[in-house]
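Lecture notes, part 5. Sequence design as translation. It can be helpful to think of inverse folding as translation between two languages: the language of shapes and the language of residues. The source text, in structure tokens, appears below.
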């Protein structure tokens, strides 16, 4: 049997795309093996958010060719899209397909020989239809990431993604609901709606928007939780809040992108909101949905960020009281306006600011989680891990995105069970199942 291995970098959207491509190979008689194993074909689904992502992609290409010199190498994803000629020149690469034509991947790689190279990267800015890459073979039993949208029209000054993913394209409404029903029939309890910019869902359609999708998923029997991937603050209008607070399956957690807590920095980033608007959105959310977890992303060391601007961000972050923060050091991306900005911040300063922001993030996460000690929350269990070979530990998530670990067995995986939260240990809370 012919074999194919996948190596995926980057976001949940890339992970979804990889699963869909793997399924296409399986339908053609291939066996999917781990990325470190010997394979006839290696597919690298790349990310290009940072220079590190690009470097990791190149490293794996070389590693794959070393593992099997006769293997064919396919490079897909954002790095392939934005630097197709550069990628094609890498020794061992046979096919580059970027962020489109992934549904043709099997035919395209089978059509070329080991000593041939082919570039099938389209002008993504001219693609106006969502590329359907559904997943039929369901893996797992707990949370399912469902891609509903592709592309972004925001053009933040630091971000390469609009150039890599193209304009907004929404998945057909009926195809989304069809996949949700299939997931429910296979025992999934939670749906995570994801995309490049899901707040833009429906902007290219006549009669649907994101809240329509959320409501329709809410109506699917068997689905007990709905969660959103990262969303822009401007999505969260008072009307949107009024809608979601009436939906009991909607998780009390939103990943609300911030990037900076300083208005001057936000302007240079070409973000479409102010800190005052962001503050009011969070206040409205907390008023409507008690105990909601607000998580976010912060970029430190953006060009021109002074000590004063950084300290303003630190103060704002503490004021908002995030439950979790992903901290990124700014990385210049060729082709974006910010890469040409003057006053690029020295790497040493970025490192120091990153360390300080991570410390603030850790303190805020601890503060948020302390509120739930000795309280009972429902946990959807996802994984079982062996500890010291003599004790089974299972882990899962609450609706407000707290990672919980308890003593238990495999039978609990895929079930939602009430757990009393007892003790904080690093990034997890140790709990006790109430009714075994």
């Amino acid at each position: 049997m012919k074999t194919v291995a996948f190596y995926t970098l980057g976001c949940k959207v890339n992970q979804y795309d990889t699963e869909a491509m793997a399924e296409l190979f399986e339908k053609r008689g291939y066996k999917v093996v781990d990325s470190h194993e010997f394979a006839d074909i290696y597919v690298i689904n790349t990310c290009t958010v940072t220079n590190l992502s690009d470097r990791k992609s190149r490293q794996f290409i070389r590693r794959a060719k070393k593992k099997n010199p006769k293997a064919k190498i396919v490079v897909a994803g954002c790095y392939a899209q934005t630097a197709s000629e550069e990628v094609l020149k890498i020794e061992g690469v046979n096919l580059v397909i970027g962020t489109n034509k992934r549904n043709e991947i099997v035919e395209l790689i089978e059509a070329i020989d080991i000593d041939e190279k082919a570039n099938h990267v389209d002008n993504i800015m001219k693609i106006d239809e969502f590329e359907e890459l559904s997943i039929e073979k369901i893996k797992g039993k707990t949370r399912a990431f469902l891609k509903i949208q592709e592309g972004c029209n925001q053009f933040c000054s630091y971000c390469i993604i609009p150039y890599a993913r193209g304009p907004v394209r929404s998945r057909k409404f009926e195809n989304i609901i069809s996949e949700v029903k299939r997931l429910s029939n296979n025992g999934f309890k939670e749906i995570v709606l994801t995309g490049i910019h899901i707040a833009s869902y429906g902007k290219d359609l006549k009669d649907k928007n994101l809240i329509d999708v959320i409501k329709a998923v809410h109506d699917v029997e068997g689905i007990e939780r709905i969660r959103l991937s990262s969303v822009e603050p401007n999505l969260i209008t008072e009307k949107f809040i009024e809608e979601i607070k009436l939906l009991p399956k909607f998780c009390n957690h939103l990943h609300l992108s911030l990037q900076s807590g300083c208005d001057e920095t936000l302007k240079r980033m070409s973000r479409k909101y102010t800190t005052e608007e962001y503050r009011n959105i969070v206040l409205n959310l907390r008023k409507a949905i008690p105990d909601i977890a607000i998580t976010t992303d912060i970029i430190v060391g953006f060009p021109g960020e002074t000590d004063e601007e950084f300290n303003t961000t630190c103060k704002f972050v503490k004021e908002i009281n995030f439950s979790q923060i992903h901290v990124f050091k700014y990385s210049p991306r060729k082709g974006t306006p910010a890469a040409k900005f003057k006053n690029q911040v020295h790497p040493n300063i970025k490192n120091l600011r990153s360390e300080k922001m991570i410390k603030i993030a850790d303190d805020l996460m601890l503060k948020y989680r302390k509120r739930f000690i000795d309280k009972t929350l429902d946990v959807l269990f996802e994984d079982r891990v062996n500890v010291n070979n003599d004790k089974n530990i299972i882990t899962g998530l609450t609706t407000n995105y707290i990672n919980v670990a308890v003593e238990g067995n495999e039978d609990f995986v895929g079930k939602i069970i009430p757990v009393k939260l007892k003790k904080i240990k690093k990034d997890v809370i140790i709990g006790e199942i109430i009714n075994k």
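The translated text above is only one of many valid answers, since several sequences can fold into similar shapes. The chain is about 35% helix and 25% strand.
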